[in-house]
Amino acid sequence: MSEAAAGGEAVVLLAVDAGLKTGLAAYDRQGRLRWYRSHNFGTPDRLRRGARQLLRQLPALRWVIIEGGGRLAEIWLREAEHRHLESRLLQAEEWRPRLLPSRQRRDGRAAKGSADRLARRVIAWSEAPRPTSLRHDAAEAILVGLWGTVEVGLRPDFPDLP
């Protein structure tokens, strides 16, 4: 999705829940969510081409925050480096404690359900288009991105969400 197609403020931060089924969330200079989606790349080669194409479509992009590991996360890191973007690789254990209370993180299933509910609140707060369905990878990318907006200094702290 191009920035023009996303309608509005230029994207400066992209959050990625890395995998062949990838979650993506884009944030503007004010630290507000502009768009989000899931994409099933299917193969590492298609992921590589897709990452390259997406980063090329976001000319104002400065940061790429990636949750995950292994060679699929490395694809995003290499593409970000190639475009001279600041990037950060992290695991859920780094961002979840800042956004989800411990009782909501007691196991993976609870954490994913809590992430979905919180991501929907971020969507509402940002006035981004409401989802017809929200895959867990997109929900987690939304929260990784929110965490990233504070980490890189786009926001002083997390917003009070509705």
Structure description:
The protein is α/β, with parallel strands linked by helices. It has a single domain (3-151), classed as Ribonuclease H-like superfamily/Ribonuclease H (Nucleotidyltransferase, domain 5). It contains 6 helices and 5 strands. Strands 3-2-1-4-5 form a 5-stranded mixed sheet, with helices on both faces. A hairpin with a 4-residue loop joins β2 and β3 (33-40). α2 (44-56) runs parallel beside α3 (70-82) and α5 (108-126) crosses α6. Residues 1-7 have low confidence and may be disordered.
User: For this structure, what is the CATH homologous superfamily?
Assistant: Ribonuclease H-like superfamily/Ribonuclease H
The average pLDDT value, as a whole number, equals: 92
Structural class: alpha/beta
- H/E element order: HEEEHEHEHHH
Largest sheet data: 5 strands, mixed
Spatially, the strands of the biggest sheet line up as: 3-2-1-4-5
- How many structural domains can be distinguished in the coordinates? 1
Separation, N- and C-terminal Cα atoms:
27 Å
Q: Please give the count of helices.
A: 6
Query: What is the number of E strands?
Result: 5
Write down the CATH topology.
Nucleotidyltransferase, domain 5
Q: Tell me which CATH architecture applies here.
A: 2-Layer Sandwich
Radius of gyration: 14 Å
Shape: globular
- Classify the helix fraction into a percent range: 40-55%
User: Under the CATH scheme, which class?
Assistant: Alpha Beta
Name some characteristics of this structure.
single chain; 162 residues; alpha/beta; 5-stranded mixed sheet; 5 strands; 20% strand; globular
